[in-house]
Structures are given as C-alpha cells and as structure tokens.
Specification:
This protein is mainly beta. Helix content is 0%, strand content 39%. A hairpin with a 2-residue loop joins strand 2 and strand 3. The two termini are 16 Å apart. The relative contact order is 0.22.
C-alpha cells in the first residue's frame, strides 16, 4: 500500500491478526492501519493492512508513493482489500467525510478503462499509476 499524498503519520496500528476469509473483527474496525494528515482538517485513513507490515512510525513525514504497508484482512473486513477514507478529523467516523480526487491515474470501472484521468474516489474503483 503506497501513500496517496504527502503527509504526517498521526495514527497507526500493526499488531492485529488477519481474519480468516469470511470473518470480521467488528471491535477493531480499521484493523492494522495508517492515518495521514495531508492538510489542515484532512486525514486519509488506509486500513485492513497485514499484521507486521506497517512500514512507517508515528510522526513520520512521508511523500506520496512511500510504502505504508501491505494489504491484508485485519479489522472489520472479511476479505483482503484496501480501505481508503478521507475525513476532517483524525478519529475514525467522528468527522465529516471528504470527497478526494485522484489525478493523472488509470481507471477501470464496469469493464471500461480510462487512462491518465482525474477521477473522484468511489466504491468499486480500480486504480493504478500510469
């Protein structure tokens, strides 16, 4: 999992086990995760990482593209995937969600491919760097 933007690491977890497929840990919604402050009142949550793979420390200032950790299945997740959430407070689900936009990416959506586009973050979006 790579940092989507420059930012400061303000929260993380790295010791929760990965769930067996089909099982969720509702007591730890984010599972192993990293939270980045990318601007005043803008926090990016990257969640469900594999235990022991978080590659940053609290207070680190990281650059876009830096390795944060590996995709896993920890937390309130029943299959491996990356959860990205942006809100205006550093505590999960206590603020107002924000609508980030990716720039200069390739997108696959509903079997169609779009290259080098700017696109808002939406559920089910497959993205990669050109």
């Amino acid at each position: 999992m790579l940092a989507p933007a420059d930012g400061e690491v303000v929260s993380l977890a790295d010791t929760l086990p990965d769930n067996p497929l089909g099982v969720k840990d509702a007591n730890n919604p984010l599972g192993n995760h990293v939270v980045l402050r990318v601007a005043p009142d803008r926090y990016v949550f990257l969640a469900h990482m594999r235990r022991g793979t978080v590659a940053v420390k609290l207070g680190d200032h990281i650059k876009r593209g830096a390795l944060l950790g590996r995709c896993g299945n920890s937390g309130n997740s029943d299959f491996p995937h990356v959860h990205m959430h942006v809100q205006d407070t550093p505590v999960f689900n206590t603020g107002t969600g924000q609508n980030p936009e990716f720039t200069g990416i390739n997108v696959e959506l509903s079997g169609k491919r779009f290259d080098h586009v700017d696109w808002p973050l939406i559920r089910g979006l497959f993205v990669w760097n050109p």
